[in-house]
Amino acid sequence: MSLFTLDALTLDTTGELRFNGALPPAEIVLDEDGAVLGQGFVVDDRLRARLQLGDAGTWHVATEWDLFSGQLAGDTWDIPGTLDARHREDLGVLDAGSFVPRQAYAQALVGAVQIQAGLVTSHWGLGMLANDGAHDALFGRTDFGDRLLRVRVATRPFGPDRPLTVAFAADRVVADDSATMADAQAAWQGVAAALWADQDVTGGVYLVVRDQLEADGERRSQVGVLDLTGSVSRPVANGLDLVVQGEVAGITGRSSRSRTYTSPEGLDVASAGAMGRLGLEAPLWNASVYGGWASGDGNPDDGVSHDFSFDRDANVGMVLFDELGGAIEAQTWNHLTDLEHTGQAPDGVDATVTEGAFRRATYVQPVLGVGVSPIVDLHVGWLSAWSTAPIANPYTSFRNGGTPTNHLGEATSGRAIGTELDASLTLTAPESWAARPGLRVQGAWYRASADMGGASGVYVLATGRVRW
User: Number of structural domains, the chain?
Assistant: First the structure.
């Protein structure tokens, strides 16, 4: 929304005020002692506001903030500790962590080269690895976003009318899934990317070289990432389009962030992941099959880590990973850091808590969508997920001599994680409105596999928001 325009100078403001009302599956059992998630109905909110000043197409400066973020009212979960980045253990929207700068940068076009410098968010492809937390998930919620101090140059080498963009960047990571500057983790990376984007075909390659030093000043990760993405849309009949989207990535290098008894100096890294969609789109309906795969480490003693994780905002379903997996991770961290249980917390234990990121797993989710009208949208999907490594809780399996056991201390033998039925109904005001109110109601029924404890239940999430 433009506040004013003076000659070529424009001041724009955009944003979103969001309220979530959630009823989590409170009776999820998290360990063999019978601890449960224990969270009843809760309301959280967030004000995301952006201000941009500049001359369109030539230069601009911009800033964006998440304000008053947190659980506003209701019940907190019963899991001790403060490592969960959503801080579900607390009520409050006036803490320091409730005010987060997302962007504060300047950008200018110098000849044929665009230069950008400052605090930015990062997104690439389908958001499997680099995710800005600003893209609505098919199901569930997005809460974070990768934030970087970045200097970037980009250009269209074959002219402004050709859809090929090449970019190079140098980053200091402020916060992402692997590092947080506030926790004294120092992560630097160099990025090179090329993207071809026209109306129906998009394809790109994203290369990252990353060096990350942990807070102890000793443990270090040095890895390279190759990420390929693409999408194609083609008409197959009158009013019917075939859509194919995908992203695949591999990571290789060396890391001493986590160490084992057989590899005390660190581990080699060799992991990979992929996600995609095959769909048919018509004016009033769409049908798609979504899927993804993240490699898992079947042999934790071989000196090589094969574990791959999606970004925590690249949601897969609503419950099995975000709620069930995230809660189990937080409780496992409590056990691993309790010196009465372990004697000494293992290196890299902080990486246990991912807020329910999809990792070491594969999934398939057919989804049917119906556009009742331009402002009403309904989606229903069935998710099935399996582990790509033996189902093994780090705490109970270590205590059991390395034999895979789940979070309940039960021996595991299969790879099934579980299934869930997801549904969402979205009401959105027309784009022509200056302020667009919206309502989204989502629900999920889930059943975890026997190897994941066999729990079943319902999760409900209602989101009211105003965008401008």
Answer: 1
